[in-house]
Design a protein that fits this description.
By secondary structure, this protein is an alpha/beta fold. The chain is built from seven helices and ten strands. A five-stranded mixed beta sheet has the order 1-2-3-4-5. The protein has a five-stranded mixed beta sheet with strand order 7-6-8-10-9, sandwiched between helices.
Length: 244
């Protein structure tokens, strides 16, 4: 199997167990905790079967610091949007599986379990044509940052609260929104796979200061992010830089 096929198989395996668990009658925190554990086990099983010599860097496992010397590291978030998953009427959660190799993200898959979809880097999703409307900018449901408000003002856009980071990035990929602005805290596993898919689709993905997003870094924190359609990138970047 190619690396991207392994990523997709792992993401699908986690998505399947998450859908099954959601039908079990659990809700809220209990469902979220069960989902985190079951999705981690599903992904770990696929990676152990197909890439046993690679290091896994996951939100739901101890940080294996050997990853800093490794040539291949899988960066995983088994359930991105645990809160949304526990709210059984919501669909804005995701599964992230990305491969970092020799300094860059080389393959990734993002599963959207509630939609029954898996987006991958190869073949990359086709970016929908721009729509004649005010730009829509995805933001956190609970902590929309000041930078997002500045970005919306700069392009005459509107803010769209959504759940998990992965879902927000894939909403840009799928054309539901035109950009995603985040500040105030995030980790490498929150964005690695969705950023890889977004870049493969031709979107812009950067830190808010305009610097590149770097993965498999010693500090797991990667606190801010801009993902957008390329035609909006200059205006949005100028706006968010002006608030930092």
């Amino acid at each position: 199997m190619r690396d991207v096929e392994v990523a997709a198989a792992a993401a699908r395996a986690a998505a399947d167990v998450l859908v099954e668990l959601r039908a079990s009658g659990l809700t809220g925190r209990a469902l979220g905790d069960a989902g985190d554990a079951a999705a981690q086990e599903a992904i770990a099983g696929v990676l152990a079967a197909h890439r046993p010599d690679d290091v896994v860097f996951s939100e739901e496992a101890a940080d294996d610091r050997s990853r800093l010397e490794a040539g291949r590291v899988w960066i995983v978030d088994p359930l991105d949007g645990t809160r949304e998953y526990g709210e059984t009427d919501r669909s804005d959660f995701a599964v992230h599986v990305a491969l970092w190799a020799a300094g860059t993200l080389t393959a990734a898959a993002v599963a959207l379990p509630a939609a029954g979809e898996v987006l991958v880097t190869d073949p990359a999703p086709a970016l929908p044509a721009a729509v004649a409307r005010a730009p829509r900018i995805a933001v956190s449901r609970t902590r929309p940052p000041a930078q997002a408000a500045a970005a919306a003002a700069a392009v005459g856009g509107e803010l769209v609260p959504l759940g998990s980071a992965g879902y927000k990035v894939t909403a840009v990929v799928r054309g539901e929104v035109d950009a995603y602005v985040h500040a105030g805290g995030m980790y490498q596993w929150d964005s690695a796979a969705p950023v890889a898919v977004a870049l493969a689709a031709g979107l812009t993905a950067l830190r808010l200061d305009g610097s590149p997003l770097r993965y498999n870094e010693p500090d797991p924190s990667l606190p801010d992010l801009l993902v957008c359609r390329p035609e909006l990138a200059a205006d949005l970047l100028a706006a968010v830089r002006g608030t930092t």
